[in-house]
Amino acid sequence: MKKITAKQLNEIKEWVRTQVSAKRYEHIQGVVRSATLLAARYGASVEKAQAAAWLHDCAKERSRSEMLSWIRKSPFKLDPDERAIPALWHPHAGAGMALNLWKIEDKDVLQAIRCHTLGTPEMSLLAQIVFVADFIERGRTFEGVQKMRLVAKRDLRSAVLLKCSMTIEYLFSKNMRVHARLLQTWNAFLAASGAK
Ligand SMILES: [Fe+2]
Ligand SMILES: [Fe+2]
Question: DSSP characters for 171-186?
Fold first, then answer.
């Protein structure tokens, strides 16, 4: 498998800048910064964390039909509940772009992109890093983000749990649907933490 080089990361960064608004680019830069710090802290590959962070939202401003076309060209599938919620398409479309445009075949990087919103019970260390970095980057201002940043420094798996519970509570409070995979992620990480 090809290694992700500094040159390729730079090319990806410049390309991502052309794919999203200035505001989203700033968010993505924040996620790269947080993912870099978390990768160094928890012993993951910094290059892989940066590649996944740069690409995690690259498809977010594509039209629905473009997103579906990238997904169709990829081995990634939407489940019926994801298909019903277009906000859940961009992780899969982004992984499709990473694979088909950037020829990134690393399974951890692709999983980190695909799972950055809902998680998955089998999240690799890299996927956990991007899942958490997306939530704690410096541009985030929601109530509780400071606590979340402290938890992320102390224990990554607890931070995964906290992102799940905060997101689920938010969705409940807004009367919005909760995708089953987010609950599965919560249940799996909770069980692994020793809680009942
Ligand atoms: Fe996203
Ligand atoms: Fe994001």
Answer: HHHTT----HHHHHHH
